[in-house]
């Protein structure tokens, strides 16, 4: 629930601002010269990270809308490109890196979308675009904005009119109503992060239940959208095997394997700075107390043999239902790839190429080679 | 000689450093008239610690002084209903006079009912007139006065009064210390544990905190090692769903602590190794397996093979020491032989 709406005076005249003011009537509204007052109010709060989820700042994106995912050094990256529509999230996952990524973290929505679409136009006009996949779900959840902004009603048809780039909307919500009936032309992949109900209950506050996420996926499939799923973060706890196996059974009982463009696996990892944040904000959470060791990028990860065992089992269970689906790891090294899947991405042209190829096949992207 | 022979009217001025309440804000200065009286010690409630900031009353040094030169500076008392008095300033002086067997004591008595925050401020200012407050006194001052301060103004009001830096983090850390048992609070003052370690202990129950404290008293570890032990034990407790005290009292820890063949440093090292192994069992197993594999390789003292840190990367390092060209060539031949050993290939594939 948004309690305060701050509006950058420079964007007051944008039509979307009037719409948002109308839709967020219950919130207090302040027009500000810049973010200083907002950051001051947030910093004084006992829980700025939690409070940042209730304050929405409407402003302009002063940088580029399309940017490279920060990724991480020393591990194999998928080459994800971000469509930077806004920051932060209304949901409250204990493990969320955004809690420690922005200082202070606050919901921002960029209203200067004429610049966003101009960047998209340039990209779509490229004879040989530098990448084929773009997503909004890196610095925010892709669909939390739907009830207020209806952004997908603009983005999905826009991507549907070209065949060079595919858009991935990644979410933990079930806010898919706006996607119904849009001319997507299979150029939008709707993706969900999945975890067993036990993890959702304990670690993913205010997110949709597993059942709701799967039902939303099923609806999107019925509307013809290609789907993707992200088992990220995978968490080790007593009973994880049984829970993840059951989750996978539920997934394939709800959607068809042939309509899934990719499934990613990523075990829980975190910057050391996130640890005190989780300890303070989620004192009941046990996720920090696995066997984490410093990775090559400075993040803490499960000790590698534990990750390998986790991935092996989850990949095997997925393969039972979907032998041909593209499974990939988010930020893992060659040893993990080789030990779990039997190959390294370099043997198949690299991970970005593997994902592009799957997008070509499922989404009807034009082959530019 | 009459008990109230010496009566003299004086004034106590309380200068408010910051307003405590909206009403206080109207007046920056409060003035109380007090009387110098001789009060029977039996009428002073020594158990009333309302205005006391220190942990204990160590009156020994004051006893000697009073015995030699008398009570130069009479304590300040306030009436507390009936005919009894509460000590505002001078706990050690009153205690010393009691030890010396005085039936009465000269005192400065505040009139009527003085608001509690004013009594506390007087006690604080009296102490600060001749020394800085220690961190426990600051913690107790925060604890006693916070209820009288507008929420949000605590740091602004209390930092100058109690003498700590006007910083939210410092304020939060100091204020948590009152939750610790007295024994640990005393341990901060006698430097058995550091301030930071004490703050770490605040998140545990009293029983757990005392278990840590008892251990640190015995081992006299550095601050970083103490903090490492607190973190390891705290995390093991969460992982295993048990109390930290249970870990610190388990058989393995007792065996280390009671081993007569180990000195204090050795006990500290063994304890930390045990806790690390219990916190990271798979990593400990892998390290042990690696050590076993190295034994099979028989590298000798001139070759040292090191795995990637935490077995996370894929880069091993090899250190070779030699004294001469002949020695160097011998190492080279050894390396050649090692590269053909199955145990070496196993290391490179297994880890």
Oligomeric state of this protein:
heterodimer
Kindly name the structural category of chain A: alpha/beta
- Return the average pLDDT of chain A rounded to an integer: 95
Task: Provide the succession of SSEs of chain B.
Answer: EEEHEEHEHHHHHHHHHHHHEEHH
The radius of gyration of chain B is: 31 Å
Mean pLDDT of chain B: 88
Give the count of helical stretches of chain A. Answer: 14
Helix percentage range of chain B: 40-55%
Instruction: Look at the helices and sheets of chain B and give the structural class.
Output: alpha/beta
Principal-axis shape of chain B equals elongated
Amount of beta strand of chain A = 15-25%
The total beta strand count of chain B reads: 8
Identify the notable features of this structure and list them briefly.
heterodimer; A: 369 residues; alpha/beta; eight-stranded mixed sheet; five-stranded mixed sheet; 14 helices; globular; B: 351 residues; Conserved hypothetical protein from pyrococcus furiosus pfu- 392566-001, ParB domain; six-stranded mixed sheet; two-stranded antiparallel ribbon
Commentary on this structure:
The complex is a heterodimer of chains A (369) and B (351). In chain A, the strands form four sheets. An eight-stranded mixed sheet of chain A has the order 4-5-9-10-11-13-14-18. In chain A, strand 1, helix 1 and strand 2 form a beta-alpha-beta unit. Chain A has 369 residues and is α/β, with parallel strands linked by helices. In chain A, helix 12 crosses helix 13. Helix content of chain A is 36%, strand content 20%. Chain A contains 14 helices and 18 strands. With 351 residues, chain B is an alpha/beta fold. Among the domains of chain B are: 81 residues, Alpha-Beta Complex (Conserved hypothetical protein from pyrococcus furiosus pfu- 392566-001, ParB domain); 100 residues, no CATH class; 58 residues, no CATH class. Chain B has 16 helices and eight strands. In chain B, strands 1-2-6-4-5-3 form a six-stranded mixed sheet. A two-stranded antiparallel sheet of chain B has the order 7-8. In chain B, helix 13 packs across helix 14 and helix 14 runs antiparallel to helix 16. The longest helix of chain B has 18 residues. Chain B is elongated and about 95 Å long. In chain B, 28% of the residues are buried. The N terminus of chain B is likely disordered. The chains are: A alpha/beta (369), B alpha/beta (351). At the A-B interface, helix 12 of A face helix 10 and helix 14 of B.
